Amino acid sequence: MNDAQWALVEPFVRGNPVGPQPVLHSRREVLNAILYVSRTGVQWRYLPHDFPDWQSVYSYFRQWKKDGTLKLLHDTLRGKVRTKAGRQPQPTAGILDSQSVKSDVQAETRGYDANKKVKGRKRHLLVDTLGLVLVAWLSSADVQDRDASAAVLPLAAEQFPTLQKVWADAGYEGPRVQRIAQHAGVEVEIVKRSDTTPGFVVQAKRWIVERTFGWLSRERRLARDYERKEESSEAFVYLGMVRLMLGRLA
Fold first, then answer.
1. What is the 3-state secondary structure (H, E, C) of 76-91?
2. Distance (Å, rounded) from C-alpha 229 to C-alpha 232?
3. Structurally, how many domains does the chain consist of?
4. Tens-digit pLDDT profile for residues 220-234
């Protein structure tokens, strides 16, 4: 991070000790190391010696993941990016989709997505019309999109009272999703592919969430799900977006 980016981040990690021991490492260097892991996909134990020792870096990552620091940082930066783009901090519309990725054998939850022929985990993302992540929910790859909507939509309605409309693909079509959406106070509109047009066609609104998946895939830690716990996978989604939003703000 450059100085301007650190100025945006520093209030969230200042005075947040991991334990009773004195602070031995600059939190800026610790966060740089965590972002390095996200960007390069390197294992914690193989962090370059320029950074603090990997045990300390991982301890901070674990603590910030558990106490919500990373999500709070992510959500605050998203509001700043929306404001800079001339939008209100809270969204009124979003796009919902999922991405199945292979996971490591040590993952606590794994499943087989028969449609994508992928054994691993599934990332269910709700993004705003700028492609910024609103809700990230992780599951095993065998969880159907319709079933995941029972977790994502109520969570979105709780966190974003202004949310009114969500676009989704045919995987979310059906009376069950409509009942969930109605209960959450959100309108879900299904954007279907054309049956007459061959090949790849950009779908209205839906391309926005696909672009977000492309952004996240540039983080090598997210090219495959290497995490044992779903909470860690979710944290790296937020870290990938934090890096992107810091670049836009500073």
1. HHHHHHHHHCCCCCCC
2. 6
3. 1
4. 999 999 999 999 999
Residue with tokens 């066609």: 201
3-62: pLDDT as tens digits: 999 999 999 998 645 555 566 789 999 999 999 999 999 999 999 999 999 999 999 999
Q: Pull the structure tokens for residue 142.
A: 């065998």
In tens, the pLDDT along 76-132 reads 999 999 999 999 999 999 999 999 999 988 899 999 999 999 999 999 999 999 999
DSSP character at residue 45: G
**Angle at CA 44, nearest 5°, toward 63 and 23?**
45
Would residue 120 count as lying in a domain? yes
In a domain, 157, yes or no: yes
Task: Please list, in sequence order, all residues whose beta carbon lies within 8 angstroms of the beta carbon of residue 223, skipping any fewer than 6 positions away.
Answer: 41, 101, 217
Q: In this predicted structure, what is the pLDDT of residue 79?
A: 97
Helix %, strand %, coil % of the chain (to 5): 45, 15, 35
Parent domain of 105:
91-225
What does 132-201 look like in DSSP terms, one character per residue? -EEEEEEEETTS-HHHHHHHHHHHHHHH-TT--EEEE-GGG-SHHHHHHHHHHT-EEEE-PPPSSS-S--
Q: How much is the pLDDT for 24?
A: 75
* Residue 114 included in any domain: yes
Contacts (Cβ under 8 Å, ≥6 apart) of 219: 38, 39, 41, 236, 239, 240, 243
Task: Give the tokens for residue 167.
Answer: 């676009």
CATH number, residue 160: 3.30.420.10
In which residue are the tokens 């939003």 written? Answer: 245
Tell me the pTM: 0.91
> Which two structure tokens, joined as six digits, stand for 217?
């895939």
Q: In this structure, is residue 239 part of a structural domain?
A: no
